[in-house]
Amino acid sequence: MAIAKAERLMNLALCLLGTRRPLSKRELRGSIEAYLEAGGDDAFNRMFERDKDDLRELGLVIETVENLEGEIGYLARRDSNRLPPITLDAEEAAALGLAAKVWQQARLAGAASGALQKLRAAGMPEAEDSYDTQHSALEPRIPVHETAFEPLMLACRDRRPVVFDYRKATAARPETRQVEPWTLECWRGHWYLAGWDRDRGAERVFRLSRITGKVRSRAGAFTAPVPDVVTVRETVESWAGEIATRSARIRLRVGCGYPLRARAQSVREGADGWDELEIPYGHGLDAWLVEFGPDVVVLEPADLRADVVDRLRAVAKG
């Protein structure tokens, strides 16, 4: 059905762009096969009006003209629908090239590469060597391994509520969550969804790797206001443990936990195969420490130590 509608819209757009005079509904119906197969006049009129509105929503400028006999005709003038010339400088072109490379591991890779080729064919300048990551030792990438990424990205874009099964780090089984998705953020190599949890009546952040099964879309509008991008990003960082409110003291096995060492405020080397680190302590630190398993021991504060022990026990119980 989607392919048939896309073909019908394309044929209608070509007819409206290819004519030098306005075409009536009768002429358009006789020129497009899908309209001939529509059945009665009412079915055709409904289909045509929907298609015309869809093309206008996509950006096609369609004029409505009445002739001397009072018949309504339609056309899309080429000069009104011609895109302006692309005027990107070398630095802007380099930024687009880097952005396309970022998505190499996602299903967006094909679309990004295709868009870049079209822009270059339209005259976009090639990136300077200093910006060309093909010859660079470092290349920007955002890993996208979770199957939930694409449906959630589309749901954020279209402002569509979703339902999915989510397993918390301390839970043995997943539970169903009804969420109004706001945005996706990548932090420490993991993707997080920020949105409004309808069941809890509050904003929440979900790690995509803990979403099990399929993400299902739901009809209807959002029930909670969507905050601005800055607020959402700060929420994601806070729930992921980026915003620290105090410090924690841990013991870390020598040769392990390099991400923890990179964040450490101080490191005291030990002679027993363990180092003592002081690291920023924010929301979500307990979940991060659990990932290092037996290589980390929390010394203080006591509440962080208790949270880590609880999570480890939950994992041990399965």
Task: Give structural notes.
The protein is α+β, with helices and mostly antiparallel strands. It has eleven helices and twelve strands. The chain has helices at residues 2-18, 25-31, 33-36, 41-57, 90-102, 109-121, 149-158, 229-239, 258-263, 285-290, 302-317, and strands spanning 23-24, 63-66, 72-75, 162-166, 175-187, 190-197, 202-207, 211-217, 244-253, 266-268, 274-282, 296-300. The strands form three sheets. A five-stranded antiparallel sheet has the order 7-6-5-4-8. Strands 10-11-9-12 form a four-stranded antiparallel sheet. It is elongated, with a radius of gyration of 28 Å. The two termini are 44 Å apart.
List the helices and strands and how they pair.
Blueprint: H1 2-18, E1 23-24, H2 25-31, H3 33-36, H4 41-57, E2 63-66, E3 72-75, H5 90-102, H6 109-121, H7 149-158, E4 162-166, E5 175-187, E6 190-197, E7 202-207, E8 211-217, H8 229-239, E9 244-253, H9 258-263, E10 266-268, E11 274-282, H10 285-290, E12 296-300, H11 302-317
Antiparallel strand pairs: 1-3, 2-3, 4-5, 4-8, 5-6, 6-7, 9-11, 9-12, 10-11
Helix pairs in contact: 1-4, 5-6
